[in-house]
Amino acid sequence: MQTRLQEMKQSALAQISQVADGAQLQELRVKYLGKKGELTELLRGMGSLSPEERPVVGQLVNEVRSALEEAFAGKQAALEEAQLAAKLASQSVDVTLPGRPIPAGTMHPLSRIIEEIEDIFIGLGFDIAEGPEVELDHFNFEMLNLPKDHPARDMQDSFYVTEEILMRTHTSPVQARTMLKKEGKTPVKIICPGKVYRRDDDDATHSHQFTQIEGLVVDKGIRMSDLKGTLLTFARQMFGPNQQVRLRPSFFPFTEPSAEVDLQCFKCGGEGCRVCKQTGWIEILGSGMVHPRVLEMAGYDPQEVSGFAFGMGVERIAMLKYGVEDIRHFYTNDVRFLKQFNRS
């Protein structure tokens, strides 16, 4: 039996050294050391040995078992190391290669226009005021000279949450809130950027949600000429130093007198073209002198102070400045469109 043990040991060690993968190694482990393996079969034959031979053979069996287990463990470690080395070689990285650039985002064109407009008016001494997008009817309409039964409410088809709460249809409520906070003190000189909502069919020039920037100045001795001068300065800084503006009579419930403001067509210089529909002018915003009733409701004496207000659509300004023909481009998040406005 001792001879058989030695032969089995030498045969097993030789086979272990030739193993090429983990599956073969496991098969050999079961073959020699498993419950039905060759070493186990030899142990079962020890009952036929004489009492003198059993200790000698038992010691030899333990030595063979230890040698095989050590060989199996060593081979297992060698196979795992070779597998790791092969994996690293197949996934090697050349650290000297230049990195792949990660595309960086860019400021949205509407955000750029808002920032540009804010910078212009901050330079003129205006502060920036904000207010809630979900507004009370009281501030959205009544404080702006639009009582419950006023027909001009039909000009702004609204999203109502309840009879007294709605999505604001303009940023003018911020003006009313600001004047109330001032408690009749002057001067008031603010612009109010923000989103507004109206029930409108979305098309190339209309959207149910868009962005407005409204301005308000209240102080002693404010005149229509101050309004025109402010808007002319804005137009020249936004669209070029040679720009001209034109005020046309209009109607807004919260201003009196009211005026639509036109910009000289930047495409044809006032000569007339397809962009300005051959008129030489492009409408950009509405404006006017603050209605005395609005001043009174906000706590001001219209005999002592006056003011002007204006409101512009940011998308309208952006479309004119960048030559965009469809307002929906600003909301569809097409990267090809947005990349055109990258500052870099």
Tell me about the largest β-sheet: 7 strands, mixed
Low-confidence stretches: none
Q: Going across the biggest sheet, name each strand in turn.
A: 1-4-5-9-8-7-6
Form type: rod-shaped
Name of the CATH superfamily of the largest domain: Bira Bifunctional Protein, Domain 2
> What helical percentage do the residues reach?
40-55%
CATH topology of the largest domain: BirA Bifunctional Protein, domain 2
Helices, by number, come to 11
**SS-based structural class?**
alpha+beta
What is the radius of gyration computed over CA atoms, rounded to a whole number of angstroms? 42 Å
> What is the end-to-end distance?
86 Å
**Which oligomeric state applies?**
single chain
What is the residue-averaged pLDDT? 86
CATH first level of the largest domain: which class?
A: Alpha Beta
Q: Give the strand tally.
A: 9
Secondary-structure element series? HHHHHEEHEHEEHEEEHEHH
Beta fraction: 15-25%
Describe what you observe in this structure.
The chain has a 7-stranded mixed β-sheet with strand order 1-4-5-9-8-7-6, with helices on both faces. It has helices spanning 2-18, 22-33, 38-44, 53-90, 109-123, 137-140, 172-182, 224-239, 292-297, 314-322, 335-338; strands at residues 127-128, 134-136, 165-167, 188-197, 209-219, 245-252, 255-264, 281-290, 306-313. The chain is rod-shaped and about 130 Å long. The longest helix has 38 residues, at 53-90. By secondary structure, the protein is α+β, with helices and mostly antiparallel strands.
